Amino acid sequence: AGWGFEVLPTPPPTPVVVSPGSAITFKWNTSTGATKYYLQVNTSADFTGTNIFNAEVGNVTSQEVTGFSLGTTYYWRIKAGNTGGWSDWTAVRSIYVTDIP
């Protein structure tokens, strides 16, 4: 028997973390006739604080948002729209960020 050697493959690259990550996904139910939604996430319950997210999100029922600080309460609301205009805002909901899920 002769001598031999084995060539080992190179190690794989470092995996990319997906969850838990640095984002929170906000979800809501569809509104009959809606073709778009608008989401606001703010540091103040009256939405006069810092906007973490404040934009139309299209015809979807969830939106991933980043930029949160741990130990902070955030407030969010959503409204539905179509070519006829926008609905009223939902009731304001709050989340206290202790860990990004």
Structural write-up:
The protein is 0% helix and 43% strand. It has strands spanning 23-27, 36-42, 51-58, 62-66, 72-82, 85-86, 93-97. Strands 2, 3, 5, 6 and 7 form a 5-stranded antiparallel β-sheet that branches. Strands 1-4 form a two-stranded antiparallel sheet. Strand 5 (72-82) and strand 6 (85-86) form a beta hairpin. It is elongated, with a radius of gyration of 22 Å. The model has no long low-confidence stretch (mean pLDDT 87).
Beta-strand portion reads 35-45%
Could you give the distance between the termini?
Answer: 57 Å
General form = elongated
Q: Radius of gyration, Cα only, in angstroms?
A: 22 Å
The low-confidence runs, each spanning 5 or more residues with pLDDT under 50, are none
Label the structural class: mainly beta
Query: What is the average per-residue confidence, as pLDDT, rounded to a whole number?
Result: 87
Number of helical stretches of at least 4 residues: 0
Oligomer: single chain
